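Justification of computing resources. Each target in the renewal requires a structure prediction run like the one illustrated here; the chain below, 206 residues long, is used simply to show the kind of job we budget for.
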Amino acid sequence: MTETYVKICGLRTPEAVAAAVDAGADAIGFVFAPGGPRTVSSEVARSLGEAVPACVETVGVFRNQPIGEVIETARAAAVSTVQLHGDEPLSDLRLLEEAGFRTLRAFSADAYGALSEDERADWEAGRILLDAVEPGAGVTFDATAIRAQPPRGPWLLAGGLTPANVGALIATLRPDGVDVSSGVESSRGVKDIGLIRDFVHAAKMR
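Resulting structure tokens:
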């Protein structure tokens, strides 16, 4: 059985980054979309990322921001991967790839379900993430359609995941990876070291 890829997102402190890395997370995420409790600057993200080993993917998360701004910020932050979490077109991902970044495109479950077969095929050529309608809110979604017709390419599950439910959801939906933010927080935007460890353990030790 292939081990589940685990991404811990919305990190803002050295302690949270260290906890994720020490627990065995495969990726850590920094939020650059403005206006949220987890948003950090490129300078903070770059500083935090300096302590991350090369084997752990560093991901910058953006939402409906101009692609030039995304590339500039991602370079300043020195992240390896850019995650687009809004309504960005496929052409934006191509520009990011040309700029040397790995990519991840997030969809709400509803938006993914509304795609045509051809559109799905285009997006599924790369990595995608399926989330609740409101990312980072800790809300699950009805996964019936995904269970019936899962993505054909590599994909991550997000939305309402916690240490208590992630193992069962992995077993049921069989994603290639999982992504968590609010599910490892003691309050909105504040990561809990123990919950980070418990989540990674629950996702990987199955």
